[in-house]
Write a structure and sequence with these properties.
heterodimer, A: alpha+beta, FAD/NAD(P)-binding domain, Alpha-Beta Plaits, 3 domains, 7-stranded mixed sheet, 6-stranded mixed sheet, 15 helices, 21 strands, disordered N terminus, disordered C terminus, B: alpha/beta, Fumarate Reductase Iron-sulfur Protein, Chain B, domain 2, 5-stranded parallel sheet, 20 helices, about 30% helix, binds flavin-adenine dinucleotide, binds iron/sulfur cluster
Amino acid sequence: MAFVERTVKEGDNLAAFFEGGEERRLTLTDGSRIAVIGGGPAGTFFTYFLLRLAESIDLDVSVDIYEPRSFAYQGPAGCNHCGGIVSESLVQLLATEGINLPPAVVQRGIESYVLHMDVGTVRIETPLQEKRIAAVFRGNGPRESEPLPVSGSFDGFLLELAASSGARVVRKLVSATSWDTGRPRVTCSDGTSATYDLLAVAAGINSQALQLFQEIAPGYQAPKTLKTFICEFRLPREALDKFIGPSMHVFLLDIPRLEFAALIPKGEFLTLCILGDDVDNALIDTFLSAPEVKACFPDGQVPAPACHCFPRVNVEAAAQLYGDRIVWIGDSGVARLYKDGIGSAYRVAKAAAKTVVHHGISAEDFRQHYGPACGRINSDNTIAKFIFGVSTLIQRVRFLRRGVLRMTANEQQRRAARRHMSTVLWDLFTGSAPYKEVLTRTFHPEFPAMLGWNLLAGNLARRRANGSKGNAHG
Amino acid sequence: MKTGTFEQVLAQPAQAEQLPPCGANCATGTDVRGWIAVVAQRHKLGLTDADAISQAWRMVADVNPFPATLGRICPHPCEAGCNREGKDGAVAINALERFLGDWGLRQGLSLERMESDPKPERIGVVGAGPAGLSFAYQMARRGYRVTVYDGEPKPGGMLQHGIPEYRLPEEVLTGEIQRIRELGVELRLGTAIGRDVSVDELRTQHDVLFLGIGAQRAQRLGVEGEDGPGVWSGTEYLSSVNRGAPPALGDDVVVVGGGNTAIDAARTARRTGARVTLLYRRTRQEMPAIAAEVEEALVEGVTLALLAAPLRIERTGEAVTAITVQRMELGEPDASGRRRPVAVAGSAYELPASAVIAAVSQEPDWEGIGSLYTGPTWVKTQPWGRIDEQLWAGGDALGLGIAGIAIAHGRRAAEALHAQLRGQPAPAAPSRAAVTGKAIKPDYYAACARTEAPALPAAQRLVSPETEVHATIGEAEFLEEVTRCFSCGLCFGCEQCFMYCNGKGFVRAEHAAPGAYFTLQLDACEGCRKCIELCPCGFLSAQPLA
Ligand SMILES: Cc1cc2nc3c(=O)[nH]c(=O)nc-3n(C[C@H](O)[C@H](O)[C@H](O)COP(=O)(O)OP(=O)(O)OC[C@H]3O[C@@H](n4cnc5c(N)ncnc54)[C@H](O)[C@@H]3O)c2cc1C
Ligand SMILES: Cc1cc2nc3c(=O)[nH]c(=O)nc-3n(C[C@H](O)[C@H](O)[C@H](O)COP(=O)(O)OP(=O)(O)OC[C@H]3O[C@@H](n4cnc5c(N)ncnc54)[C@H](O)[C@@H]3O)c2cc1C
Ligand code: SF4
Ligand code: SF4
């Protein structure tokens, strides 16, 4: 990336210019201006930490967050489209940073989850009674819902937080970027533009924004993405309590191209997320007509959704996600595979903020101090792909499904201190722990032994019961 | 097959222009949103500030050759329905138009011809008011030879003789009329039909006639003491002031009436230093005058005597000394829906008066021209002002209105007449249902306070009675005010649909223009409806998924 660090002006001491080693480093100084494109979790966490860290070392910088979206809108227009699961570990982590989710933002506390397979259903309580999760709306709730107060939007809350820590929120859409004598320049759809010392791109992957960098950063390659499906069903509260309860319902069904699906209760709504290989109308229909799914709705009737969207999910990190004076964070860089995107946005945003305040804003600074945080997520995702491969295998093979079901059910019944399978599944689906930990737990000497036993016992029991459909739960 | 539980909620966008309230309400029928768009979106259109402003001027002048004039005097019904009203005030369209009008005069911009081939028909126009001049302009630019007759030595009708200098300086009006003359329109001034030229002669000179005679005859109060010196009609008084021969009024002037003429007469009289009382028989709410003008009159020190009707003008010898006034109250609603004022018995009182100006109403004056049109006093026409093939009419002669309506009448008559003469289909009636409410998303647009034109302090106005009360906004204010337009019902290129569509359903158009920044690629549409719900201006609407 071409840039001019400092032009030699008349009256400059030429010797100082060439020798000024320290001075020539790219850093933020008093008066530096930073532009953040996107006010989702990545952009707001980055801003929040940057301003806090800068203040702690008496560095006086200003941040403009470009975010055209109004999180006061209902439906996809005001929403950053996701399942809205925030794990307890992230809630706790945020609390230690002084970020407390207001009660209005938490639509529902999730205390257990129910695993649905064709071979049966099993409820898993929070392991060790502590890993509770919060269900949130990213925007102002689904279409045609009772409008939440603006503070009821998770992203709205974060943006407010960034604004109250001193950032200026610019309600404009960025439509072009360029270099202005070595500094990043941002142009908005209304034709206005401004030049900054640093540009942080946190525009996610659910917009065409990542096309805007082809010229200024030819090396950057947007993440690989997959089309997913989310929708919201409006159900009477009594029906939600009866059929869903304070649980997230996870489906491992043998439907072609289906990777994973979950139902999450929130207020008067039930959120459905479907991940898979090119989710399309046919896949959604097949899923919604599965008996295991219908059983979760009153009278086995799936109502028409109140709100729906087809967001993309980051499945492979972007290439070259930093350069001099520019850095990509959150979904437009790397994100944890299939879960806890908010948590990973928090981690990389914090790492990026630390880098720019404590080290510098050159590509080299980012490589040394920001790269490792991205790398950790990347390698965890490699493990994730393996684990998901196994879980897909479980989905496809009835024999395995029985084993998993039995092991989990037994653990839950015995309220055993060591709940290997339960914890593994819990972490896998809620995002409470890195994939590496999930995998490590399956290496516990007891795990394969228990699984082996359950595989055997589960399938033997089945043969004895003569094919009647098992339900370990009821 | 689309029978799935969720497929019924899928919908895809349609790009459909909707009529904005400003354009629907504009008296002249100007494409307000369109000319604002050219300036507001000039960066995207690759226009310099100056080119954009001149282009906007041409768009206005296309339908209204008097932007500097109407920018000063129009009661701007366009602003009344503006969707921005509820946010931080309607777009100051009238102030914008005034800036454009002054720009056109300053830059010496000229009116554009539409057809260069000369047409054989000879067109005659009676009356050089806004109706007649607008008609003449639209005919001349289509290649017709047009002659306009007016009994007065100066053109402009009520704009020239009625509206006072402090609201509309003569040079502004003359400048705008001059451009119409430059198109080849011949003005025969000081030539009254029925006095200087007979109706028969007029008929032999022209194939088609347009009547733009306005409503020049003032109605009388019909009270004792009305005849004699010291009593004038409103238009009589104003036109003598405009001619530079103001009558002596004395210290106590009573103006009777509640319309624009009454207010103008009262404000003009106030500028002579007299105490001025405005007598109106109903309440302020019922006053037909432009509300802002009533406000200005009060600021300047005119006293309102409401629910009061004249009974008798008292004289000592010839001189007017007082006016006896009857107190009124509002009774049952009349045919117009306004509550009828009824006298309160035994409540008459006297107001001192050195002069009385009766500005109650005007009607068309048929003296000498009665044979031209044999219908009722107020002209009745078919659509577009057609009386018959050879005779057309428009403006106040059809009913008292405002200048913008007169201009629209003139233009529409010209369009329809041109179509008739050239054997083209008659123009279609304009649609009037404007886009409002849910389709518009006011909170998308950044807050920005409305520009207010600077006004002269009241004391100053009385000291220099001819100085304009309001000034024209500056270029910087103009360029900021245009950004306040929501562009209701027409794409202004906010890019949200393009940016947020996951399916890449929108493609940048090669030649960007208001309403045409993106083309739709419905094959790519996934049916999420996000774009429709994001579009702030209501240009995108939902249609079932193909
Ligand atoms: C189906 C699905 C379910 C998911 N479930 C969960 C879950 O349960 N829990 C979880 O933690 N994560 C979940 N995720 C992941 C999570 O949504 C993302 O990882 C997270 O939103 C990333 O945050 P971000 O700030 O990087 O991007 P986003 O949240 O996408 O924010 C990007 C912001 O940039 C703005 N923007 C875009 N273009 C422009 C532009 N041109 N100019 C200015 N601003 C612009 C947008 O308006 C937006 O506000 C899920 C994802 C999917 C697809
Ligand atoms: C005091 C006053 C204030 C007003 N203020 C406003 C305002 O602020 N805003 C607004 O929009 N409107 C205002 N109006 C209304 C506006 O002026 C009229 O609606 C408009 O001028 C009507 O145009 P017109 O062409 O139909 O008639 P006019 O303007 O009346 O013009 C008619 C012309 O025909 C000529 N004429 C008549 N008979 C003959 C004949 N036999 N031979 C030759 N010529 C003839 C007359 O001399 C006159 O010049 C005001 C009117 C008055 C009286
Ligand atoms: S945003 Fe795209 S996918 Fe969604 S309805 Fe509009 S065109 Fe279709
Ligand atoms: S969303 Fe914006 S760019 Fe798209 S059609 Fe509407 S106004 Fe035009």
